[in-house]
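Troubleshooting log. The previous structure file for this entry was overwritten by mistake, so regenerating from the original sequence record. Sequence copied from the archived sheet and checked twice against the printout by T.R.
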Amino acid sequence: MDKIDRYTDTFRELALIYGALILIGATVFTLAEGKPFDDALWWALVTAMTVGYGDIAPATFLGRATAVILMHAVPLVIAPIIVTRLVSRLIGDRDRFSHEEQEQLKAELRALRELLERREKG
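Regenerated output below.
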């Protein structure tokens, strides 16, 4: 899970992953179905969003397998990660301590511990 978080931390990374899926899907569709790349790109975008207008449909096994991957990867993996990242940025924990605040608290606790130890000895 840490690897997924690390590689999908920003919207830029997610957009690159989404764009790569679309371009790979369109390229495979072009090669498998013998369609022009602009039609294949249209097909990949429509298929990824599971709209499926039906104006272009795969006839080969490879084209259909690519469709299945796009129809499952984008709405079931990419879109939820985008929503999760967006929501986590909107709903911030306002009570969370910053790194500097944590370091300050630790320093104050060390000082208190030293003071208590000196009092106990003295």
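The chain has a mean pLDDT of 89. Archived copy saved in two places this time.
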